[in-house]
TrEMBL record:
Gene name linked to the record: pyrD
Membership in a protein family: Belongs to the dihydroorotate dehydrogenase family. Type 2 subfamily.
Name of the protein this chain belongs to: Dihydroorotate dehydrogenase (quinone)
Complex formation: Monomer.
UniProt: FMN binding residues: A66, G67, F68, D69, K70, T90, N144, N177, K218, T246, G270, G299, Y320, T321
BP GO annotations: 'de novo' pyrimidine nucleobase biosynthetic process; 'de novo' UMP biosynthetic process
Keyword terms of this UniProt record: Cell membrane, Flavoprotein, FMN, Membrane, Oxidoreductase, Pyrimidine biosynthesis
Source species: Pedobacter cryophilus
Pathway(s): Pyrimidine metabolism; UMP biosynthesis via de novo pathway; orotate from (S)-dihydroorotate (quinone route): step 1/1
EC number(s) stated in the UniProt entry for this protein: 1.3.5.2
Cofactor list: FMN
One Pfam family recorded for the sequence: DHO_dh
Reaction(s) catalysed (UniProt annotation): (S)-dihydroorotate + a quinone = orotate + a quinol
Topology in membrane: Peripheral membrane protein
Length: 341
């Protein structure tokens, strides 16, 4: 069915069709029979798929990456497609509109997307209230947190604190996003000292609670090996739970798409990122001796892509662009492929 609909969807602006499809999905699932039909079609469960990672129990290792449901508006509907976990956000303390439109672009020849959304979201208070009412049924929910565009980098830690405190009781794990290329200056926070300051500050607040929450760091695929060495050192020193590798890339190397598409500013995701994200996973796993869990994301379009990331050292994987290009059946395809392996 999705193969028939995709050519129609791809005739429209990517951002507009995203909200049309998710809104339609939400409205349709208000009819009691639709959620059951979707579950029976797309869900796949097997005991061997269960995972325990950073102290949390996952029904399966395939999650939905941050950015797809920034405001936590479609969690229950998306969960019916069989995800083991869903990451919401990136969320900021205050609502912000993001960058000017258009800000998302398809590269069909490369099965890729370029986005420069700019952390558009309704703010952490709206997200927290939404999550309070979500029916989880064993679903793990992660909160991806960032800083507002107008917050200077020297004050960025305060934005992460605000999001952390507000979401603490409604998410299962946190992701510190300092790697998006679409907020000016944000990637500067990946440098050693500012990053250590943010992570140490959050860990201090974390440990004040009777039960702490796993904190992960989402990193860019564009880091050098020397910078990745620093990441391993920082994680070891701050004792955060792990890493998400990787965010989108600013590289345009090897693309088949035309110059007009390639020149769009923003982060590139999808198949062109498959190899590099897997390389980063393997480097981190080898360098650290697998001393911390890694969530692998970037260019997963089939079961083979997912297995390669797990073989490289990832404990879990996430999809986004593959979900757009391959459709909702991708989750089941990956899970069945992992069981066969």
């Amino acid at each position: 069915m999705y193969k028939l609909l995709k050519p129609i969807f791809f005739q429209f602006d990517p951002e507009k069709i995203h909200y049309f499809v998710t809104g339609t999905l939400q409205n349709a699932q208000r009819m009691w029979v639709i959620p059951k039909l979707i579950q029976s079609t797309f869900k796949f469960e097997h005991k061997s798929l269960e995972r325990e990672v950073f102290g949390l129990k996952f029904k399966n290792p395939v999650g939905l990456a941050a950015g797809f449901d920034k405001n936590g508006e479609y969690i229950e509907e998306l969960a019916n497609f069989g995800f083991g976990f869903i990451e919401v956000g990136t969320v900021t303390p205050l609502p912000q509109p993001g960058n000017d439109k258009p800000r998302m672009f398809r590269l069909p020849q490369d099965e890729a997307l370029i986005n420069r959304m700019g952390f558009n979201n309704k703010g952490v208070d709206v997200l927290a209230k939404k999550l309070e009412s979500v029916k989880r049924d064993g679903l793990i929910i992660g909160g991806n947190i960032g800083k507002n565009k107008n917050t200077p980098n020297e004050e960025a830690v305060n934005d992460y604190i605000k999001c952390f405190d507000r979401l603490f009781d409604v998410v299962d794990y946190f992701v510190v996003n300092v790697s998006s290329p679409n907020t000016p200056g944000l990637r500067e926070l990946q440098e050693k000292e500012p990053l250590k300051n943010i992570l140490n500050t959050l860990q201090i607040r974390n440990l004040k609670h009777s039960i702490s929450k796993p904190i992960l760091l989402k990193i860019a695929p564009d880091l050098t090996n020397s910078q990745l060495d620093d990441i391993v050192e920082i994680i070891t020193e701050t004792k955060i739970a792990g890493v998400i590798a990787t965010n989108t890339t600013i590289s345009r190397e090897g693309l088949a798409s035309g110059e007009s598409q390639k020149k769009e500013m923003g982060g590139l995701s999808g198949k062109p990122l498959t190899k590099r994200s897997t390389e980063v996973i393997k480097y981190l796993a080898d360098k650290s001796g697998k001393s911390f869990p890694i969530i692998g994301v970037g260019g997963i379009h089939n079961a083979k892509d997912a297995q390669e990331k797990l073989d490289a050292g990832a404990a879990l994987v996430q999809i986004y662009t593959g979900f757009v290009y391959e459709g909702p059946g991708l989750v089941k395809e990956i899970l069945k492929g992992l069981v066969k392996k």
